[in-house]
Amino acid sequence: MTPTHLTYTSLDPFPLELGGFLPGLTVGYHTYGNLNAARNNVVWICHALTANSDPLEWWPGMTGKGKLYDPDHYFIVCANMLGSCYGTSGPLSEDPSTGSPWYRRFPEITIRDMAAAHELLRKHLGIASVHTVIGGSIGGHQSMEWAIACPDLFRNMILLASSAMLSPWAIAFNQAQRMAIEADRTFYEDIPGGGLGGLKAARAVALLSYRNRQAYNQTQEEGDDTKTAGFRASTYQTYQGEKLVKRFNAYSYHVISRAMDTHNVARGRGNFEQALGQIRANTLAVGISTDILFPPEEMKNIIRHIQGGLYSEITSAFGHDGFLIENEQLTNIIQQFYNTTQNEPAN
Length: 347
Hints:
Helix content is 37%, strand content 17%. It has twelve helices and twelve strands.
């Protein structure tokens, strides 16, 4: 299946929540499938931290021919988030005022700015309604902010391993990762490969929050009790760090993690009940039994404040990463949600 990878560029100033603006905005995105005659089959996927706009690449268990989100049935849209490095404006994009990349000068952005970028693209595509917006982790943060800002746009919202605000625990993990990047002196050179050593270490820190003790003990267990070096857990951490630095950059990682820290749907809206109460979409929140980054109680807290919201839980040994791994469980949960609410689109 050949993806449609497109780029949309707006030359208008793009205002930012914390003040100032970007002098124009570019959004990279993928689409699969086609709008049906009723124009009610749009599924908008908001990706996680270092993913890109091609869900068939990073979520093949859920998207593609014969999967839950089959392009023969749905028109699938996934846009690269603001600040990232896969086609959307970010730190390695050109600052038109200088003709050079932004690097560390890229403005401070928030999750609400990311949602606003999705909305700009949505209007460009002429999509009047969205059957389902779905996102895991930071993708869930974006979905919530968008559904609050545009309550009549979405028929369904599915949140996976996310939260209504970032907890001190999650912020601490983000800060530890930024400290690793900032300890790499090349980060301050403002060059394409700046900070990659620090990013490698940051990824190793992040993995500890994406999995958990049980997962590491299960997958990285040693079969040789005489070993004193070269442990599987050590090589795994190094390998995963090396994988990320081959496809991402430290400047985007730093910017996005700071934006993640700002996530709080109640900011400027009174409280969680008032903020989440604005959502009109049929909402399903899916927690993961072993998630230590966004534990189930945080997902349950979201549903308490959304009228008619439903909660379900995946059993997984793989912690936060479970939403990318437990495809069969997730498919069954979402299909049951659609069946219960009679939310299948017209053919």
